[in-house]
Model the fold of this input.
Amino acid sequence: MIEIYKKLPGTNCGECGEATCMAFALKVQSAQRKMLECPYVKQENEESIEQESVVTMENNYKRVSKELEEEVKGVDLKEAADAIGGNYENRDGRGVIRLNMMNKEYEVRNDGLFDNDTYCEHSWSKIIIYDYVRMKGNVPLTGNWVSMGHFPDAASHSKAFQKNAEDKISEKFNSDLNGLVSRCNEMEGTETSGKLKADYVCSFNLLPRVPMYMCFWEADDEYSASCKLYVDRNADAYIDIEYLAYLLEWFVKIFVE
Ligand code: SF4
Done:
């Protein structure tokens, strides 16, 4: 954490949404914030810091995913599968949960996460799915939608979230509503209505019990397009909200590809 702190300006300006650079460094260390979310990291020495930052972050992600993997070894997978909407099976006396994350199937076993019968090396897939499994969401979904800013842990960087996720969709599909609808279909979204007035509303199951709702307002003569992403009010009972923010950004990255 000190090594990360040393790469920050130390001015405690608060622009990242954290009260101090130390608080920001702590969140980077636990893989909850990205180094480049401090606007001054980039400006100082863009290339070298970016490279170092990528190395530091990769190491952090690996460490966090290993810690969570250890924790999942002690989880009762049968009980967890019921709670998180996964399919449980007993394979040769060992429990396995099959579940989809963003339409891709994974298997959680007591010895790790598997993708196509191969141990998954992608740290973020492991972090998100292990966290989802260990939390065993213990409250029902409400059906009420909230933006990420609703959750205190994500409120501090809702601006970064808007820039990294919602704005990317509105910029890409600005006045191309048909293009957006067709991309939603490709990503197996379900057109939804009734909650909010928007030109198009679509829901996606990022994880079996983690729905996301996309509201899109197409550009007109006066305004450019806008997009808002919502999750269930109880989403934080199923997944750490910082990891959920990452999952949404990841989804958007694929969505606008
Ligand atoms: S934006 Fe950067 S310099 Fe400002 S408090 Fe956050 S980490 Fe420190």
